[in-house]
Design a protein that fits this description.
Order of helices and strands: EEEHEHEHHHHHHEHHHHEEHHHHHHH
Shape: globular
Strand order of the largest sheet: 4-3-5-6
């Protein structure tokens, strides 16, 4: 077996008021780099009775522009859903890969031919889709006041998720020999992943420093920081990369401390508690997650994916220093956030079960606290919170197309196909009558389904990425569907629900 580079860090335990910080490489000592900037809106106060305190939430200016550099398999889809909901409700401009390939800008395709143009005399507000981070390109595309975010995960846990999701056992042709396939791989990763970082599939690097590669680490440098490398050269390469990420990103979130990360995000952006409520997206359960990795095999992985370990240890350390500096009973806010998020899920789940009948309550009222103004969670919010990524992407594309004044004659220039011919044929007889306000129209519109109403307004949607009700609500609230049409369809929906629930009078939004 190759001789490993001398391990460049010493294990240490640092006990803080918020928990135990795992070992650190001790990077940047004496380099003059400052710790991440203090959180916006945080105040230094020793009181811990946040939910009942008379202290008002800190005054600060809301920040709306975000570049989220999305790593693979780190909980990024959940963060992306939060950002999608925030930007959608405020009608912000998303940088959208040409429909309908949400990864069209990955890996190195952040160029105009790969995304929809920004509306005239406007700027992009949010970039949340997969693309490899490039400082120069990001700053050419996004305004100067953009906040840069990413999220990372403990590297071995990350490898287990990658291993399951991409079926690496089959890709590497590893046969079961009584021990778990991932252990076979980790005992000799160079044998199985021969092209990682220096083959024709750059940067599709799944097992070696993959988080760092997505954040812009040159994949070809993997062979200079791996097993048997020169120790000094590896340290220089790793620290140079970490310094860049440290300087460029306002917040590096940690998967293992997801709720704490979201509260840091809320304070950084000066958002409300409602803005960060979430459902977990793309969560999977798999046997590899429980596989025990012996210490000597862990060490091999540490050497194999050295830059990812350096990345995680450094930002785990700065993360907890940031928590310590946050003030205003940060951990109390995290606990309160978890309770409210649990209440939100319970309500939304009860309102969206098959054949839903009214339940009590149908809303959750959250009072003012020292951390955030109060708000109400209702059916409309639940619709947004449970909407999946494909649906958000579809609705954002529809909105962008309307702003760009696209139609069925020129939509092909931007990768669109419009509704299916069968849908167009079905809707053709309604086109002329929609604007007429006569008795016959009133009779006809009351027979329409949600799919009938929204089909004529779709440019990119094929009525499959979202439910008809999502499209109906979207086009109505954006002013493309008349109040008469919307109410007529809703009356039909409500009537059917009332019949299923055996109720005479039922009013739903």
């Amino acid at each position: 077996m190759l001789r490993y580079c001398h391990q460049a860090f010493a294990a240490c335990a640092v006990i803080t008021t918020v928990g135990t910080i795992i070992c650190s490489h001790g990077l940047f000592k004496g380099t003059g780099l400052s710790y991440p900037r203090r959180l916006m809106g945080a105040v230094d106060n020793s009181q811990s009775s946040g939910a009942t305190s008379s202290i008002r939430w800190p005054k600060c200016k809301e920040r709306r522009r975000v570049a989220f550099v999305k790593n693979h398999k780190v909980g990024g889809d959940t963060v992306k859903n939060i950002l999608n909901r925030y930007g959608y409700t405020r009608k912000l401009n998303f940088l959208l890969p040409r429909p309908f390939v949400a990864s069209m800008t990955y890996p190195y395709s952040l160029y105009p031919e790969f995304y929809l143009p920004v509306p005239p005399n406007q700027t992009f507000d949010m970039l949340v889709y997969h693309t490899v981070y490039n400082r120069t390109r990001f700053r050419q595309v996004l305004p100067k006041d953009t906040v840069y975010l990413t999220i990372i995960r403990e590297p071995l846990s990350h490898l287990k998720s990658i291993w399951n999701y991409y079926g690496l056992q089959n890709r590497f042709l590893i046969r079961s020999n009584g021990e778990h396939a991932i252990l076979t791989f980790l005992n000799n990763p160079e044998k199985y992943d021969k092209s990682c970082g220096h083959g024709r599939h750059v940067p599709y690097c799944l097992t070696q420093n993959s988080m760092s590669v997505d954040l812009g680490f040159p994949a070809q440098n993997n062979k200079r920081v791996t097993l048997g490398c020169d120790r000094e050269e590896r340290e220089v390469i790793s620290q140079t990369f970490l310094r860049k990420i440290h300087d460029d990103f306002h917040l590096v979130m940690i998967t293992e401390y997801f709720d704490e990360s979201l509260v840091l995000l809320k304070r950084l952006m000066c958002w409300t508690l409602q803005d960060i409520l979430y459902y977990k997206a793309n969560v999977r359960h798999y046997a590899t997650k429980r596989t025990r990795i012996p210490p000597d095999v862990r060490q091999i992985h540490n050497e194999w994916s050295y830059v990812d370990y350096s990345l995680y240890h450094h930002f785990n350390q700065t993360f907890w220093k940031r928590v310590q500096a946050a003030g205003n009973d940060f951990l109390g806010e995290v606990r309160y956030f978890r309770r409210v998020n649990h209440q939100m899920r319970e309500l939304c789940d009860s309102l969206s079960r098959p054949n839903p009948c009214p339940v009590s309550p149908t809303t959750v009222v959250v009072n003012d606290t020292r951390w955030s103004p109060g708000f109400t969670i209702d059916r409309d919010f639940c619709l947004l919170a449970k909407r999946d990524l494909d649906c958000y992407y579809s609705l954002q594309a529809e909105r962008a197309a309307k702003v760009l004044k696209l139609n069925h004659s020129n939509i092909h220039l931007y990768g669109g196909g419009g509704p299916r011919p069968a849908v167009i044929s079905q809707l053709k007889r309604w086109t002329e009558t929609e604007s007429r306000k006569d008795a016959m129209y009133d009779v006809k519109v009351h027979k329409l389904s949600g799919k009938d109403v929204v089909g004529r307004h779709c440019l990119y949607c094929n009525l499959a990425n979202c439910r008809p009700f999502d499209y109906l609500t979207h086009f109505y609230k954006d002013g493309h569907i008349s109040n008469d049409s919307y109410r007529a369809v809703m009356r039909r929906i409500n009537q059917k629900i009332a019949e299923r629930c055996n109720m005479k009078n039922l009013t739903l939004p």
